[in-house]
């Protein structure tokens, strides 16, 4: 059941949307990308004659009351609408799409992730951000928010999918063929590379021996038969994960009606040879690529205050080295903790910060990443006051 507080927050959504327009209208040249992005978001929200999206009604909500239920909720964004992903297909992500992933844990601990595919359009990413604002508001701004980019997902995100992620080509508006439960098995021919140790990922590859190497595992999905091929230099964790993923494909996409076979390098069955052709000498694998270094709390960090006191968004550096004094974090404001050189940006939202600053947190982070020329797949974590993660706290001294 949605509580009265959640409904009240949802009623304020129109004010937040107006705030996006005001930010776009008053942006300074320092934030050209943010200006364009806010205007794009506003046009998505109100709709226009040229818009490909259906505007979200002010009186309605695109999410059901079940978003309050514990557990994992996954939606694919389709024309500004969140479309639920069936439980058996959770963990399958199309590179041309954007997704919302919500995990409700114990004691109202929630995490909301925006997953961005490598081929996802800017418009679709904007639509995903708009829906995230709606969902976050509906949940009383309780969730910690995360921006996940394909291929650089956080450990927390990966933990929701114990059998790993499976990337597939295409998207909602794509001409690519999409495999769905019930598809004719005989028409299916797909190859996935399985790589990693702690965080396993399966990525769709070209259907050719040229995609193979001796250091990784590969899954050849032929519909009725699914082959988990293990390179001679692949590690035991990759082999186990390849087997698990092959079984998951069988169970979720073939309703259990397919044969799974584990194949050792050099013992390929005739069906593999028929599809891929004669096997050539394969590329050597590089074990170093499988080593996932632990994320360290680097000392090279800076802290910025976000303010719109003048009607324009400004960033002011308040400290250029850590550990920071915890007293710098004021409840009336939002802050950017820059750890971009190590691949992550944090936004801290004070509980008394104005609504415009809180709602703009993700867009401020994305613009900051662009201005600093950090990698586009830099992770973003948005923390409401009181929901700080242990890693975030390590940047500060005497945090109690």
Provide an overview of this structure.
The protein is α/β, with parallel strands linked by helices and 400 residues long. The protein has 3 domains: 1-162, Severin; 179-290, Severin, CATH 3.40.20; 293-400, Severin (3-Layer(aba) Sandwich). The chain is 26% helix and 25% strand. The protein has 10 helices and 19 strands. It has helices at 4-11, 13-26, 32-46, 122-138, 155-159, 236-253, 270-276, 355-359, 361-371, 390-393; strands at residues 71-78, 81-84, 92-94, 98-104, 110-116, 144-149, 165-168, 190-195, 201-205, 217-221, 225-230, 259-264, 302-307, 314-319, 324-325, 334-339, 344-349, 379-384, 396-397. It has a 10-stranded mixed β-sheet with strand order 2-1-4-5-6-18-17-16-13-14, covered by helices on one side. It has a 7-stranded mixed β-sheet with strand order 3-7-9-8-10-11-12, covered by helices on one side. A two-stranded parallel sheet has the order 15-19. Helix 6 (236-253) links the parallel strand 11 and strand 12. Helix 3 (32-46) runs antiparallel to helix 9. The chain is elongated, with a radius of gyration of 23 Å. The chain starts with a helix and ends with a strand. Residues 4-59, 174-184 and 292-299 have low confidence and may be disordered. Keywords: Acetylation, Actin capping, Actin-binding, Cell projection, Cytoplasm, Nucleus, Phosphoprotein, Repeat. Its main location: other. Residues 81-158, 199-273, 319-392 form the Gelsolin-like domain.
User: What radius of gyration results from the CA coordinates?
Assistant: 23 Å
CATH topology of the largest domain: Severin
Could you say which overall geometry the principal axes of the C-alpha atoms support?
elongated
Distance between the termini: 34 Å
Strand residue percentage: 25-35%
Domain Gelsolin-like: 81-158, 199-273, 319-392
InterPro entries: ADF-H/Gelsolin-like_dom_sf (IPR029006), Gelsolin-like_dom (IPR007123), Villin/Gelsolin (IPR007122)
Family: Belongs to the villin/gelsolin family.
Keywords: Acetylation, Actin capping, Actin-binding, Cell projection, Cytoplasm, Nucleus, Phosphoprotein, Repeat
